[in-house]
């Protein structure tokens, strides 16, 4: 029996997720598996939050509709020609591939940060599902400015929702994929229904009426920033920066038969990050006309964004079910990714149990509404932090031979801490985060420059610091 077959059997016993070996050919999946996952993950809980938050940022119709069209195709191209291309060649998780490049000690810090940030994102989606469960219980919904839970009932709901999501994620990629395939058609139908009902409630009879919902835009709500065309383009491109140019979805596409499976992300972008965002914004536009919302605005306060009540107002209890499922289909793969990050730190613990740990952290985060209510800013921040590490993988993959450096240097040279990676990320992060804070530049505007800078610096430092025998 070959060494690879021995390792394959070990992987099946330990958890079947091939965390430290390439995915074998008998486990590769066709494009349909990814289509369901991406449609489910991106026509999901975040969409119920992001659509309304665009309205609070005062976007115009042109900025929203055309900006999303362009930003989302840029995201799809990033997945197809960067993430899927590299994933199919090596078939390794992001975390193991980074370990080969960075060294075991350096990658521990990255894995910890990555896992925690993914947990926070999953926590926001647990919050979204909880707002739906809370509708029939008539609990007070969190406000846009809330950071702390508003009572014990809210905490109990979040804990129960988080427990179910964590168990599904803990079963592994196949279960996550099956859950997404089952839930995503229901969620898509719900978004379409919500949009159609909201158009009727807004009295929209033609395209001009639809366009005028946003019109020329307006002033942002209290506590929000103004979004322009370029805010929409760059934010929609980089809201998933950690997953595509940041290479997190190497862990997903390593199961793909061909790189062309990367095109399936378009289902998530244009069903979710286009149709669903706009449908959710319409729900919030209906709410803004209510006496309750007008009362908030009169007091110079931002009306709350609670997906559960918004969907319930449009399509009743089907809306509640849809919001619960929508939160699950985002949180499930996100917790799965976080579990893989933690598993890379503690490899002797099974994938199931590290995923349960990740789910527990996400559930605790979900108790606090701040992660969901500040989702636009949080997503921009986590993409900015994590994406430059993906540049290290991308630049090594495409330019290592041309530049005369050794791929997977840390593994071959037995270096536990690759200083080239740390310097490249630290300098690029420091420069562009300082620019963002000093000149009040939105983080999505500097994500691509930071990514390019990190990749270029990695090549330069590797050329300087790699030992001659390994170049």
Q: Sheet bearing the most strands, described? A: none
| Portion in beta strands | under 5%
The radius of gyration over CA amounts to 22 Å
As a percent range, the share of helical residues equals over 70%
In total, the number of domains comes to: 1
- Going by helix content, strand content and strand pairing, the class is mainly alpha
Q: Could you tell me the mean pLDDT?
A: 86
Morphology call: globular
Q: In the CATH hierarchy, what is the architecture at level 2?
A: Orthogonal Bundle
| H and E string | HHHHHHHHHHHHHHHHHHHHH
CATH superfamily: Hydantoin permease
CATH topology: Hydantoin permease
Terminal CA distance reads: 33 Å
DSSP helix count? Answer: 21
Please tell me about this protein's structure.
This protein is mainly alpha-helical and 471 residues long. The chain has one domain (35-386): Hydantoin permease. It contains 21 helices and no strands. Helix 4 packs parallel to helix 10 (229-238), helix 6 (104-133) crosses helix 14 (307-315) and helix 8 (173-201) runs parallel beside helix 12. The longest helix is centred in the N-terminal third of the chain and has 30 residues, at 61-90. It is globular, with a radius of gyration of 22 Å. It starts with a helix and ends in a 6-residue tail after the last helix. Residues 1-15 have low confidence and may be disordered.
């Amino acid at each position: 029996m070959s060494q690879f077959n021995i390792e394959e059997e070990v992987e099946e016993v330990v958890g079947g997720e091939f965390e430290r070996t390439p995915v074998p050919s008998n486990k590769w999946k066709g494009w349909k598996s990814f289509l369901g996952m991406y449609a489910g993950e991106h026509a999901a809980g975040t969409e119920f939050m992001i659509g309304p938050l665009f309205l609070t940022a005062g976007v115009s119709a042109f900025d929203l509709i055309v900006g999303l069209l362009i930003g989302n195709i840029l995201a799809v191209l990033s997945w197809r020609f960067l993430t899927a291309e590299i994933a199919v060649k090596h078939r390794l998780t992001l975390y193991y591939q980074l370990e080969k490049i960075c060294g075991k000690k350096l990658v521990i810090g990255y894995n910890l940060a990555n896992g925690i940030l993914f947990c926070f994102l999953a926590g926001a989606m647990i919050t979204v599902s909880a707002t739906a469960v809370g509708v029939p219980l008539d609990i007070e919904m969190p406000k846009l400015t809330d950071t702390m839970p508003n009572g014990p009932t809210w905490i109990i709901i979040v804990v129960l929702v988080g427990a179910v999501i964590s168990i599904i994620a803990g079963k592994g990629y196949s279960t996550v994929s099956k859950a997404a395939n089952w839930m995503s058609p229901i969620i898509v139908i719900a978004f379409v229904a919500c949009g159609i009902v909201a158009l009727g409630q807004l009295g929209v009879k033609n395209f001009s009426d639809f366009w005028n919902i946003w019109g020329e835009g307006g002033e942002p709500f209290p506590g929000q920033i103004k979004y322009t065309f370029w805010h929409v383009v760059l934010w929609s491109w980089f809201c998933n920066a950690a997953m595509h140019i940041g290479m997190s979805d190497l862990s997903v596409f390593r199961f793909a038969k061909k790189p062309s499976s990367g095109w399936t992300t378009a289902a998530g972008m244009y069903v979710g990050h286009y149709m669903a965002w706009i449908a959710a914004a319409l729900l919030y536009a209906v709410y803004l006309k209510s006496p309750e919302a007008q009362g908030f605005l009169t007091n110079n306060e931002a009306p709350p964004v609670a997906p559960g009540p918004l969907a319930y107002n449009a399509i009743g209890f089907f809306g509640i079910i849809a919001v619960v499922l929508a939160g699950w289909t985002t949180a499930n793969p996100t917790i799965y990714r976080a579990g893989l990050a933690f598993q890379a730190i503690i490899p002797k613990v099974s994938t199931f149990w590290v995923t349960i740990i990740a789910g527990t952290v996400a559930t605790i985060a979900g108790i606090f509404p701040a992660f969901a209510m500040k989702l636009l800013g949080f997503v921009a921040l986590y993409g900015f932090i994590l994406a430059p590490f993906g540049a290290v993988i991308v630049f090594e993959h495409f330019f290592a031979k041309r530049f005369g450096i050794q791929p997977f240097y840390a593994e071959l040279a037995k270096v536990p801490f690759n200083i080239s990676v740390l310097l490249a990320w630290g300098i690029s992060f420091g420069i562009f985060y300082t620019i963002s804070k000093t000149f009040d530049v939105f983080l999505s505007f500097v994500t691509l420059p930071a990514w390019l800078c990190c990749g270029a610096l990695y090549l330069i430092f590797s050329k300087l610091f790699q030992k001659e025998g390994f170049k």
